[in-house]
Amino acid sequence: MIDINDYFYFVKVVEHQGYSSASKALNIPKSKISRHVAKLEERLGQRLLQRTSRHFNTTEAGDAFYLCARKVIDAMEVAENAVLEKSDTLAGTVTLSSSVGVANFLLKDLVTGFSDEHPDVVIRQHVSNDYVDIIPAGFDMVIRGHSASLPDSSYIQKKLAVVEWQLFASPSFLSALNFTIRTPDDLSGLKSLGFGWQSKEKTWTLRHVQGEQTDITYTPGLCSDDMWTLKHASEHGGGIVSLPSYVCKEEVANGSLIRVLPEYTTANAQLSILLPSRTGVSEATRAFSTYLCENAPALAK
Questions:
Q1: What residues contact 74, with CB distance under 8 A and at least 6 apart?
Q2: Distance (Å, rounded) from C-alpha 206 to C-alpha 266?
Q3: Is residue 112 part of a domain?
Q4: Which element (helix H / strand E) includes 228?
Q5: 46-69: b or e for each residue (b if 16 or more CB lie within 10 Å)?
Q6: Distance (Å, rounded) from C-alpha 113 to C-alpha 70?
Q7: Which segment of 41-55, 183-197, 202-216, 280-294 scores lowest on mean pLDDT?
């Protein structure tokens, strides 16, 4: 007799690359998952997974079975969503991942706004600057910033917003200079701050509104992965910093930061939402991604 749970647990083991990871993601005992997979292999008379203490792989039969089993699980989710969509109240759980900067400066109002409109939807937010592979990590969606096009994949890609990175400095820092910054070359040798902690020497690629491009190499006195830290340091005279425009919007409005070389940007990045499959997206996830796409562009300016 076919047990759909066998399919479900097998799919989760493959996507999480192991029994322990699947057990943690599903919050159920590893022994239960192992029993279902073993029962599936016994019924099929085929080994689907090769596992040792250090390695995990699917067999040729396992690869073929996964593709079919994934479609079965997706179809089940579509069937449930078809019933849930008839309900007047949107419910369910949405798990998402984003960088720290996006979470702190862009998503905070969007997450609370969506929750106010749909109080029965539980949002589980993971925040990290590390790369996250959406399927093995078990997320419903990932928000990713990128300057180049994302590679083609089986994921759904939805454009969220286009973000300008600009240069900022405090009024006290700029007034202490014995000149006015008028061209990119004027930035050479000035005290600066750098996003990303790894490299000692960095480069700003400044693009003029009319298309001119200039590279300025600088050595920051402070490097950080945290945009809050960089913005705070710049506000207190720490130097010139390049950050997304929406990160410094309030500080520019209240005068604690001033945009430097306003006719130039240092990057034009795109924020995109990645979803694992078109058929396996829950109604709550679909509604949340639509809400983000409709409201994020105005906040990202």
A1: 277, 279, 280
A2: 5
A3: no
A4: helix 227-235
A5: eebbeeeeeebebeeebeebbeeb
A6: 33
A7: 41-55
Q: How confident is the model at residue 152 (pLDDT cuts 50, 70, 90)?
A: low
Whether 203 is covered by a domain: the verdict is: yes
Higher pLDDT, 133 or 118: 118
Q: How far apart are CA 183 and CA 107, in angstroms?
A: 34
Q: pTM score, two decimals?
A: 0.71
The owner of tokens 């937010």 is: 125
pLDDT value at residue 154: 66
Residue 102 lies in a domain: no
Element (H, E) at 124: strand 121-127
Domain total in the chain: 2
The stretch 259-263 carries a mean pLDDT of 97
- Domain end call among 84, 103, 134: 84
CATH of the domain at 14: 1.10.10.10
Q: Which of 50, 84, 118 is the last residue of a domain?
A: 84
- Does a structural domain hold residue 152? no
Say what the pLDDT of residue 53 is.
55
Angle at 239 between CA 234 and CA 245, to 5 degrees: 55
- Higher per-residue pLDDT: 263 or 68: 263
Residue type, 92: G
Ordered DSSP codes for 25-46:
HHTS-HHHHHHHHHHHHHHHTS
Whether 181 and 187 have beta carbons less than 8 Å apart is answered as yes
Give the pair of three-digit tokens for residue 283: 């109604």
Residue that is written with structure tokens 């639509």 in the block: 290
The answer to whether residue 86 scores a pLDDT higher than 60 is no
- How many residues does this entry show for the chain? 301
Residue-range definition of the domain harbouring residue 17? 4-84
Task: Please identify which residue in the block is written with the tokens 């990645």.
Answer: 274
Q: Which of 14-28, 47-61, 85-99, 119-133 has the highest mean pLDDT?
A: 119-133
